[in-house]
Design a protein that fits this description.
The complex is a heterodimer of chains A (354) and B (143). With 354 residues, chain A is mostly helical. Chain A contains 12 helices and 10 strands. In chain A, the strands form 4 sheets. A 3-stranded antiparallel sheet of chain A has the order 3-8-7, with no helix packed on it. In chain A, strands 4-5-6 form a 3-stranded antiparallel sheet. A two-stranded antiparallel sheet of chain A has the order 1-2. In chain A, helix 3 crosses helix 6 and helix 6 packs antiparallel against helix 8. In chain B, 43% of the residues lie in helices and 13% in strands. Chain B has 5 helices and 3 strands; from the N terminus they run H-E-H-H-H-H-E-E. Classes of the chains: A mainly alpha (354), B alpha+beta (143). At the A-B interface, helix 4, helix 5, strand 4, helix 6 and helix 10 of A face helix 1, strand 1, helix 3, helix 5 and strand 2 of B.
Chain lengths: 354, 143
């Protein structure tokens, strides 16, 4: 049969107008849903999908509370004395550091760490087919792993049963969030989110600025108490006059060790282009004892590694939280973007997951 | 066969015969590159050179997006100094290149792939994992 089974249709009738789209989708569902509402991982979304957190926010409120509380005490009780006796720059520096810490913390917690969307059913079927018909070679690797060559080094890719795909290199599946995260570093309960490719630089800024902030506050409070005890000629009296300073000292003293240690550790990781996950597993520990650590992702020098990790291009979020779920699964996803639906922002913002 | 099918004509009426997935190529690390190997299912539909040219151009565009050059460093340092608040107001270099890529794929679909009953899906819609090529049933062929 040579004649085409379809007829030429007037293109104007094919344009999906907003009103007809609305009626069409309203028949199938109450309203068009955004992708964050049907997201399969264990995440919580706010502000219409713009902000995301892990399901268990961990101790993020505690982290934020401690920082705000300690800085509040500092500004309230120590700054007046220090401004009088030293310089007005002290509260200014503290304020700048405090803002930087809080903003970095919020960026780390609320940004998509680099979640990989799960494979579509067609993709999953295609991969299954390839696994089952994988050619016979002399050495058959166990099923569900694939060996590839990266920069002349053999790397094994594992198959993720939840996301139904072979995990790209440096990707790991976080069981707490139930997502595969690219360049997975670790799941940080203090921050209430995974730390991965997209928010590692925010996390690093957070711990570095927090190190500076805690050290600065610690130093200032010690100075305050010292100066005060010189004036009153008694340390006990100085402490009695400013009890808040003791609270700050205790908080800072205990946090400084861990924060400085963490900063140092992550500086080492950044310089060698490693993730916490790889370091703990010892994936690239020098087996040959040569200078090269065997890390195929490392650039030639430390500066390049640092720049690449911290100042590299910001990759986009792959999960498209605010996109609309295509109304008909049979239509390829590429067409979903061409059907322009009106934004039901008011309705969507009222719906929060979790 | 000589008739030009518009994309919407095809999607509304043609049935999907198969889907081919072009996987990522990790030989140079985690940068976004796709394999240029020509899949056998497309042999009857499109010229090998043409297809490889498309994939190569896409690879070059992604390399441009992820390039570690002075522009990305300046962007990164500026972002760090402003506590990353520039990400709220400015479009990053990567996002600009992604728009270029979307336009390129649209163009390729309109000019080359749609007339042959094929459709390329933008990899960003598949989490930059695969280039999905949808093969539509070509009913104009003699069966």
């Amino acid at each position: 049969m040579k004649n085409c089974e379809y007829q030429q249709i007037d293109p104007r009738t094919l344009v999906v107008s907003p009103s007809s789209a609305q009626k069409h989708t309203e028949k199938e569902a109450e309203r068009p849903r955004r992708k964050w509402e049907v997201f399969p991982g264990k995440n919580r979304f706010f502000c219409g999908g713009r902000i995301m957190l892990a399901r268990q926010s961990g101790v993020l409120p505690l982290t934020l509370g401690l920082i705000v509380f300690t800085c509040g005490l500092f500004f309230g009780f120590d700054c007046s004395f220090l401004v009088e006796h030293l310089t007005v720059f002290i509260p200014m520096i503290a304020a700048v550091l405090f803002l930087f810490v809080v903003i970095s913390l919020l960026w780390t917690s609320f940004t998509d760490p680099g979640i990989l969307p799960r494979a579509t059913p067609d993709e999953a079927a295609d991969i299954e087919k390839q696994i089952n018909t994988s050619g016979s070679s002399t050495y058959r690797p166990p099923p569900r792993t694939k060996e590839i060559l990266i920069n002349q080094q053999v790397v094994k890719l594992k198959y993720c049963f939840t996301c139904k795909m072979f995990r790209p290199p440096r990707t790991s599946h976080c069981s707490l969030c139930d997502n595969c995260v690219e360049r997975f570093d670790h799941h940080c309960p203090w921050v209430g989110n995974c730390v991965g490719k997209r928010n590692y630089r925010f996390f690093y800024s957070f711990i570095i600025s927090l190190s500076f902030l805690t050290s600065f506050i610690f130093g200032c409070v010690i100075t305050h108490i010292t100066l005060r005890s010189q004036i009153c000629k008694s340390l006990v009296q100085a402490i009695q006059e400013s009890p808040a300073s003791v609270v700050e000292l205790v908080v800072c003293f205990f946090s400084i060790w861990s924060i400085l240690g963490l900063s140092g550790f992550h500086t080492y990781l950044v310089a060698s282009n490693l993730t916490t996950n790889e370091d703990i597993k010892g994936s690239w520990s020098s087996k040959r004892g040569a200078d090269e650590s065997g890390n195929p992702y490392s650039h030639s020098n430390i500066i390049t590694n640092c720049c690449a990790t911290l100042c590299g291009p910001m990759p986009p979020s792959l999960i498209d939280r605010r996109g609309f779920v295509p109304p008909d699964e049979a239509i390829p996803a590429a067409s979903a973007s061409e059907i322009e639906l009106p934004l039901f922002t008011a309705k969507n913002d009222a719906h929060m997951v979790g | 066969m000589a008739e030009t099918h518009s994309l919407q004509d095809m999607r509304q009426q043609a049935a999907v015969a198969a889907k081919v997935f072009i996987q990522r190529d990790y030989t140079n690390g985690t940068v976004c590159q796709f394999q240029t190997k020509f899949p056998s299912e497309l042999e009857t539909r499109i010229d090998k050179q043409q297809f490889e040219e498309t994939v190569r151009t896409l690879n070059n565009l992604y390399a441009e997006a992820e390039k570690l050059g002075s522009q990305s460093y300046i962007e990164g340092c500026l972002a760090c100094l402003t506590a990353y608040t520039v990400f709220l107001c400015m479009e990053t270099h990567y996002e600009k290149v992604l728009k270029k890529i979307a336009k390129f794929i649209q163009e390729q679909n309109d000019k080359i792939y749609a007339p042959r009953g094929l459709l390329l899906t933008d990899p960003i819609e598949r989490g930059l994992r695969v280039i999905e090529v949808t093969i539509f049933e070509d009913r104009s062929l003699t069966r």
